Amino acid sequence: MKKSVILGAITVAGLAAGAATAGTVDDVKARGKLNCGVTTGVPGFAAPDANGNWAGFDVAVCRAVAAAVLGDGTAVEFIPTTGKTRFTALASGEIDLLARNTTWTFSRDVDLKFDFVGVNYYDGQGFMVPVELGVSSAKELDGATVCIQTGTTTELNLADFFRANNISYEPVPIETNAEAQQQYLAGACDVYTTDASALAATRATFEAPDAHMVLPEIISKEPLGPLVRHGDNEWGDIARWTLNALITAEELGVTSANIGEMANGTNNPEINRLLGTEGNLGEMLGLDADWAKRAIMVEGNYGEIFEKNIGLSTPIGIARGLNAQWTDGGLIYSPPFR
Amino acid sequence: MTTLTDPPRESFRLSMLIYDTRYRSLTIQVVALIGFMALAAWLVSNTANNLADLGKEPSFAFLNEPASYDINQRLIEYTSRDSHWRAAGVGLLNTLLVAVLGCITATILGVVIGVLRLSNNWLVAKIMTVYVEMFRNVPVLLWIVFTMAILIETLPAPRAFRGDNPEASMLLGDSVAVTNRGVYIPEILFSRSLGNVDFFGFFNVSLDLIAIGAVLIAGILISKLITRRANVIQAATGDRPVTWYKRLGVICIPTLLVLWILGYHLGYPELKGFNFSGGTHLRNSLIALWLALSVYTAAFIAEIVRAGIMSVSKGQSEAASALGLSSRRTMNLVILPQALRVIIPPMISNYLNLTKNSSLAIAVGYMDITGTLGGITMNQTGRELESILLLMLIYLTISLSISAVMNWYNNSVKLVER
Questions:
Q1: pLDDT in tens, A243-283
Q2: CB atoms < 10 A from the CB of B266, how many?
Q3: pTM reported for the whole predicted model
Q4: What single DSSP character describes residue A325?
Q5: CB neighbours of residue A4 within 10 Å
Q6: A188–B157 C-beta distance less than 8 A
Q7: Cα of B71 to nearest chain A Cα, Å
Q8: In Å, how far is B176's CA from the nearest CA of chain A?
Q9: In what residue span(s) does the Solute-binding protein family 3/N-terminal domain sit (chain A) (predicted)?
């Protein structure tokens, strides 16, 4: 009923609790499972399958971190959050890690006191319209009714885009992706706007995906990545380097298929350092030597995770594009393991 | 000789605070008060300390920043460049709008249903019973979402109105369009408008509206005078002059005259581009929220009205008819004044409930104060504590105002003891 009032109360209570606790990594180990915030359901990124097991691109990050810290990729409690509830959940300590296609912005990083640990998907805001509307550019949307998920950066980008182009629109604020789909499909709004990746994912679930198109304009930069609370640098380092380990593994050709073999030692010292047969990187993080190996073994390296959940072979069918390795002309780039 | 002896004077001892019944209750109250204050102080200081540790000192300065988001339903001018304050103001007005509309509709509906439930007609009485039980026993959130889903799924989209042979057409001589984005009705326009008057640079009020309102109120006051004069004549002569046409005249003729002077005409909605333009757009979200809150609260009001009427003993109406009062006058002069004493107090809490339930608006994307200040603003600025405190203060103020007005009304209708 008074959801936000309750949230506020939880925030206050949570802030009280959060400040009293020690390092997040100790809490996670003591609890025996990772509390990971995800979306309420975006196919390919985070959605429960028919058996109720969460799967997806963002979910894989949660599982990798759980495997690195706890040694078990299934030791994750997935907590669905909406655009509105996610930051409160993280700030209050209800979740340890938020992997919910969240855009890295200055104010979220600095003012809201979070630490983004990297970017796992370079995205931008797009528009989806029914083909029969006959629109070919977002600038033709003067007077259109636009469905938006409330409490996201897309809401602000949208206001800026229409203002900058001096065209009018009618915003219909919506709480979750599912409600937005319902309104969009019933024609209660002409356009649905959110991150282009989520549009592709949503479109893939439609009965007739070909009747809808994503307009060519991408009106914003949306670097999406996992984030943790500001101030707990040990925990931030673990999350950051787990993500980097997945990316580096792809770059170095370490896959879930050959990792067993490579873990016995290779001629490439960086692979050896990554997989813990050389050096003591794991110890520096406060974990054991096999941490990265376990993280990669859960769902494979970054490229495998991408292909399995949202790649061209899946119904969502997103090309690597900006999200290819830097060696292939993309932006995915990890600092070295040294 | 008599000796007066004073009763032995007891000096006050500390133990008397516990063992003497004269002081004990006071002691307990003081201790409880100290305990309560200590708890409150601990909660406040703990929150303040932890917020300071997080580097989030409470501050309301964020409300002056540009809000940067758009709001669809605006009763005052607003763009995304305006401050969060103004966005909160837009939300507040939306809350008040749906609360006022809801209270009016719920009262009308509730009174009708409450009276019909007492009907001698078995079928009517039973149907009303079903209505009451159905609506008050399902959570209002479900009614809101359900109403919205019906509006979205069953009504035609604006594009169904397009083409030479459209699937849907406008009603009432092409003046009203019912779509799944809301209802478009003709708007009232004035070709010789007096313009707006600016209130503290915060909002504009149309002078036309003020002029019409003033004429209407003057008309009603004159009509009251005519009634009073009729009463005097009736008391003196026993004949009551027929006054209804005079009263109707003094209210309607000046109003119509003012409308004509201002150049009153209607602006009709028409399909342009993606949507209808022109006319007044009653959005789906407003209709769903208004309708659901009204029918839900009406079920409670119906029960209150029924209880109020039944609390007046049958002897009263029998006595009234024995005096020769018509049934309408019996209701107006005998039953209702007594029933209102019972009806008003629980009615206050229903109005308060309706207003507070309007914060469920976000379920259908209606941008009320919870949606703007407690939703988007809170989320974009990350100022949870400040936003929620402000929000609670605003709801408290609204509720206390409603209570104050209704209590004043209650005092004016309550039984005067002689």
A1: 999 999 999 999 999 998 988 888 999 999 999 888 889 99
A2: 12
A3: 0.78
A4: B
A5: 24
A6: yes
A7: 7
A8: 18
A9: 33-262
